[in-house]
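Worked Example 4.2. Consider the chain below.
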Amino acid sequence: MRILLVEDTHDVGEAISRRFQSTGHTVDWETDGAAAADILDFTDYDLVILDVMLPGMDGFSILRRLRQEKSSVPVLVLTARSEIDDRVSALDLGADDYLVKPFDFRELEARARVLLRRRSGGEATNIIVCGDVSLDRANRSVKVGKREVQLKRREMTLLEVLASRPGKIFSKEELLDRLFGFEEAAGPNAIELYVGRLRKKLEGASARIVTQRGVGYQLVSDDPA
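Applying the procedure from the previous section yields the following structure tokens:
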């Protein structure tokens, strides 16, 4: 999934970015609030992790602007302020959750997983199932039946996107946005490459990736509903 991290403390931002990238997510990291607000005007994200104290524009202002523009992207607010009024303000402005610094990275990841689950369909579990393919978002593991399948980072992300909404057709452009950040040069051929690799690793599964020529890709199950 694609995440926008807005955090101006370099060591914190670097640690968060590295942590989420290591589990297969695409992370765009911005340190300036005004620049982040501009990015949100033209880029769709699955999750925004937003610090409050930022140069350019503070996190509350970014959040207020997002909700005024009717954006439904989940927002997890990070704040060094432990006062109840600040936490209430964040929630009233439209934050979906918050964490007070310093925090444990395991809790950050767990809270992010909850918000990503809501974004992809509101599942109450970290397990996505399509046919006999199951993906555990917490452990970043995949099984076909009882057979464990080893996927690389972007293969995992591609499967997660497709499996989160079985039957939905995703265009190459949508998949590019989910798999690659601003600083990563990639074209439509890259999606074809990753789809081909993922298909090979899912051979024999009852869920398969179908190409809708000129439109995009979808994950469908051969199992009866």
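The mean pLDDT is 88. Helices lie at 10-22, 33-42, 59-68, 84-92, 105-119, 153-164, 172-179, 188-201. Compare this with Example 4.1 before moving on.
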